[in-house]
């Protein structure tokens, strides 16, 4: 087919053939990526028809997220092994980007569901619900009292760990209060957590058990949450249940949805069973 690839095109004709602009071809010429086969004395540039395939290769590599600098380096040292190496590298980059997009899509859908759930449910009214098991990634609340700056650094490090391991997590943070403390009416948090969409082999991993939970949606911020604990404890006793597990606090409506902390909505759930 070599007889078909000997036609010369002006810059405008070649741009039309490649479905691009003359400015793009001028730029590629300027940086040495794709130069015309012939430049006449009058300065007119001419491209050979076979150069269409070089332009197509450049376009394919750009779609694989390669920079023009990377493409130029590859074009100069083009061979089978380099082609395989560069595609493997870009394939991994695309896989990482896919994980990031899937992560964000999951978080967006969960945020929609959680916000609508809070809008539909009654607030400050306890109820019993059956809950599926949940995968959590947790960190212990420090024993010593931290400054605000130290606490933010501590939480930020935990969230960065999630990001660096491509974990699909939800924000904001939740908290866990151990059963032993609940029975003593001590509502101080023991662990912070983010929710995952799957199990994770890590010392920080925590499985929230499947089962029956007494739940109340607390209106307001954490400084008034003791009121909801009292309501929930009275409800558990009145309905003939007993506490058999930990408490889980999670913000349904938070700084994502409100400027006023008094309008926050915090889900407070305690694992229970019939006496």
Automatic annotation (TrEMBL):
Residues 80-114 form a coiled coil. The keyword DNA-binding applies. Signal peptide: none annotated. The keyword Coiled coil applies. Residues 8-77 form the HTH merR-type domain. One of its GO terms (molecular function) is DNA binding. Keywords: Coiled coil, DNA-binding. This is DNA-binding transcriptional MerR regulator. It comes from Longibaculum muris.
């Amino acid at each position: 087919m070599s007889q078909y690839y000997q036609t010369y095109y002006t810059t405008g004709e070649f741009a039309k053939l490649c479905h691009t602009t003359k400015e793009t071809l001028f730029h590629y010429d300027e940086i040495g990526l794709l130069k015309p086969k012939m430049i006449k004395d009058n300065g007119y540039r001419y491209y050979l028809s076979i150069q269409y395939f070089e332009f197509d290769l450049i376009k394919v590599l750009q779609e694989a997220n390669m920079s023009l600098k990377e493409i130029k380096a590859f074009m100069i040292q083009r061979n089978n092994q380099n082609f395989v190496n560069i595609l493997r590298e870009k394939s991994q980059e695309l896989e990482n980007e896919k994980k990031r997009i899937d992560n964000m899509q999951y978080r967006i859908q969960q945020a929609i569901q959680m916000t609508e759930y809070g809008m539909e449910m009654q607030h400050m009214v306890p109820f019993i619900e059956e809950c599926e098991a949940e995968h959590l990634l947790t960190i212990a609340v420090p024993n010593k009292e931290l400054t605000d700056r130290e606490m933010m650094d501590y939480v930020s490090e935990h969230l960065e760990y999630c990001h660096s391991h491509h974990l699909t997590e939800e924000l904001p943070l939740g908290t866990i209060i151990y059963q032993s403390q609940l029975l003593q009416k001590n509502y101080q948090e023991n662990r912070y957590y983010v929710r995952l969409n799957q199990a994770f082999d890590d010392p920080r991993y925590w499985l929230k058990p499947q089962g029956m939970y007494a739940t109340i949606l607390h209106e307001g911020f954490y400084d008034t949450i003791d009121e909801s604990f009292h309501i929930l404890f009275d409800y558990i006793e009145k309905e003939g249940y007993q506490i058999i597990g930990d408490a889980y606090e999670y913000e349904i409506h938070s700084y994502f949805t409100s400027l006023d902390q008094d309008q926050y909505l915090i889900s407070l759930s305690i694992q229970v069973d019939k006496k």
